[in-house]
Design a protein that fits this description.
Elements: H1 2-20, H2 25-61, H3 65-90, H4 94-127
Helix pairs in contact: 1-2, 2-3, 3-4
Length: 128
Amino acid sequence: MEIVKIAGIGIAAAIAITLLKESKPEIAILIGVAAGIVIFLTVADMLMTIVTTFTELVTKTGAPAAAISAVMKILGVGYLTEFAAGLAEDTGARGLGDKIVFGGKIIILFLALPIIKAVFEIITSLIG
């Protein structure tokens, strides 16, 4: 199970960071970043499978590719934002993490605009 690997990496990194934070803060930061990268690489194959599955669904169902593409971009921005903000907070830059989250939310809203517009157009056409 991948979650056991991820939890093990996270726990080991957290212990190492706690032990090194006082004496070697720069190494503690590097351990946190390295653990995050290793965890990301652990799930990278799963991410590719998800993208491939969505692509197949679009092909089989005839769903608008633009809509599925927008949803995939939104998910990607959400996950990347959370990951980057977490890294920033781990280095002690909580304010920077908050700004990354804010930027991510604006980008997600921007990417969702075509979907929101299409929904309102459908509602308007059904009402009128």
